[in-house]
Structures are given as C-alpha cells and as structure tokens.
Automatic annotation (TrEMBL):
Intrachain disulfide bonds: C37-C117, C70-C75, C124-C316, C203-C228
UniProt site (Transition state stabilizer): R64
Molecular function via GO: heme binding; lactoperoxidase activity; metal ion binding
The UniProt record lists the keyword Hydrolase: no
Residues that coordinate or bind heme b: H196
Signal peptide: 1-25
Compartments where found: Secreted
Keyword field: Calcium, Disulfide bond, Glycoprotein, Heme, Hydrogen peroxide, Iron, Metal-binding, Oxidoreductase, Peroxidase, Secreted, Signal
Family per similarity comment: Belongs to the peroxidase family. Classical plant (class III) peroxidase subfamily.
Cofactor: heme b; Ca(2+)
Name of the protein this chain belongs to: Peroxidase
Chain residues that bind Ca(2+) 1: D69, V72, G74, D76, S78, E90
Organism: Hevea brasiliensis
Top class in the EC scheme: oxidoreductase
Amino acid sequence: MASHGGIFYFSALIILAATVASVSSSSLSPYYYDSVCPEALPTIKRLVEAAVYKEQRMGASLLRLHFHDCFVNGCDASILLDPSPTIDSEKNARPNLNSARGFEVIDQIKQAVDEVCGCSVVSCADVLAVVARDSVVALGGPTWNVELGRRDSTTASRAKADSDIPSPFMDLPALINNFKNQGLDERDLVALSGGHTIGFAQCFVFRNRIYNETNIDPEFAQQRRLTCPSIGGNSTLSPLDPTPAQFDTAYFTNLIQKRGLLHSDQQLFNGGSTDGLVNTYSSNAKAFSADFARSMIKMGNIKPLTGDEGQIRSNCRKVN
Ligand code: HEM
Ligand SMILES: *[C@@H]1O[C@H](CO)[C@@H](O)[C@H](O)[C@H]1NC(C)=O
Ligand SMILES: *[C@@H]1O[C@H](CO)[C@@H](O)[C@H](O)[C@H]1NC(C)=O
C-alpha cells in the first residue's frame, strides 16, 4: 500500500512540474525590471494617468495598440515601426491606417523611462503592455501583474496586420477561429472584446450595421444614423458603448439589448455559443474583471521575443 501511494505521489509531482513548465513557457516575469530599473513602472503609470486625464479616449487608443501589436507576430512592438526602405509599416495596414493612434504618447513614455532608468533597458513591447494595463486602470477597470521581459522586433509585416487582426465584419465562427489562431479561446474572445467598453469607432466601420442589419434595436440604429449618414461622414465617431470613458460592464448589457455598435460586437450575443458568457459578464462585474485580466496576460504572452532575440529599441519607431 505504501509503495502504491509513493508511486502515485511521484507521478503526480511529474505531472505538476510539467504543467507548471508549460504554463510559464514564456519566461516573462512581472519582476523583470525590479532590480535593473525600479522606477520604470511607476513612471509609466504616472504618464499614462496624465495622458488619459488630458484626453480620456487616449486610454482606449493605447489599450488597442497592445492588442494590434500582439496579434501580428506576437507582442514585439512591430506596430510601432514607421515606414522605411526596409519596413513595410503595419501603421499602413487596413485595421490601423487613420485609426490606430497614441504613437506620440508611447514615444514620450519610452523617452521618459529611458531617462529615469539611465539607459535603454525597457523594451517598446513591454511599454505597450504596461501602458495597456495602466490605461484600463485609469478608466476604472481591473488591474493585473503585467508579465515583462519582451524584446522588440527588427521587422514588421503590413500583410500579416491585414490578415491577422480581426475585422469588424466577421461572423462569430470567423472571430472564434481568428482568436484560436492566436492560442486564445472563446472565453478570451468574449472577455477581451469587453475592451470595447471604452473608446470609439468611425462611421464607415458600422454603417452597414445601422442601415442594413436586423439584429439591432431600431431606436439605437436611428440614433446612430443621426451622426453617421448613409453616404459621407466616414470618420465621424460614435462611442462603442454608452460609457466610453468608463471601464464597466455596459458593453455587455448593451449587447443583450441589441445595441452593439459593430457587427462583430453583436455577433457575441446573437443566439450562438457565446451568449452565456455575455449574460454572465453583463451581470457580474467581478467575473468580467477577473477574466479580462487573465485574458490580457494570456494575450500579452503571444510569441514574445526573449533572450537574445530581437533588440531593445531606443526609438520605438525605428530599428536600432
Ligand atoms: C474581437 C475582435 C475585434 C474587432 C473586430 C475589433 C474591431 C475594432 C474596430 C473596427 C474599432 C474602431 C476603429 C476605428 O473606427 O477607427 C475598434 C476600436 C477599439 N478596439 Fe477593437 N476589435 C476587436 C477586439 C478588440 C480587443 C481584443 C481589444 C482590447 C482588448 C480592443 C480594443 C479596442 C478599443 C479600446 C477601441 C477604441 C479605440 C479608440 O477609441 O481609439 N478591440 N475595434
Ligand atoms: C445595404 O446593403 C446593400 C446590399 O448589400 C448595399 O448595397 C448598401 O450599400 C448597404 N447600405 C449601407 C448604408 O451600407
Ligand atoms: C467611405 O467609406 C466607404 C466604405 O469603406 C468607401 O467606399 C468610400 O470610398 C469612403 N469615402 C471617402 C470619401 O473616403
């Protein structure tokens, strides 16, 4: 009997060790800069708070930058590289052109961090990850420990940005598949789509929804048409949910009322497999907060460059 127990215990240990190894395979750590530059994270937090105080929408724009970075060859700051003879900038890809914003804020933060650290030790990819967290917190959302130690790419891919960032015209199966390709499941899809509890979208991305779709509250459609004409006004903004400067659960409550702004938003509550999660998050802020934080860490772990891969850029817009 004793030997049986021993063998069982030994196997359980091996399984446990293997599980821990696979979970922490990224080799990132929340403590990465603690000894080399303890002032890095407080500096970022202070500057994000200032930027969001100056313009509340900036918090949303900065959160989105980290997402658009991570979905294209991993979280490697590839989105920050400007066009050059060797860089086909992701800034010119369809989902980013005249849409992604906040690049000057990132420049300013990176410069301040390098100054307080005395040299360029914090990667642009880590700046994006910390800035995303601090933006959510600045708008009243949950906090989490950001995993750190990513390095920056020396390349960018406009083509991959076009193909890998999800489109607002996708149906639920395509959205699920898009996230699955990044190692993210349906729970991550619904929780992370909750990022649309803050920020705005331009008329041309939701025009077809408010004029042509039927799974929409007619009063809401009418309201949105007032500032989004059927022709023209392409870049006029509408809030993604009724409280675009508050990180709350209104995005989900809104979906249940068929008031999702983007086609892709309403797909999460349209009689499919994700309806249950939308219901849960709409009535349980704690569950949404916990899942959003967990999924942000998971998204932040997508294919990071570590060790001697890539570099620490001194200017986030250019390869060293
Ligand atoms: C699920 C698939 C997603 C699609 C199809 C999608 C699509 C879009 C679109 C079309 C816009 C409006 C852009 C514009 O009009 O210029 C937008 C805005 C935004 N997205 Fe997403 N998104 C998705 C997921 C996410 C995720 C995972 C996050 C973050 C966790 C996120 C955060 C944001 C934020 C904060 C904004 C507002 C940005 C601002 O006001 O500057 N989105 N998204
Ligand atoms: C509505 O759908 C029709 C048919 O697909 C399309 O031609 C038209 O441009 C759409 N209207 C708007 C305002 O998007
Ligand atoms: C407005 O957006 C539509 C749909 O994306 C596009 O076909 C059209 O060329 C845009 N108009 C202008 C003036 O940019």
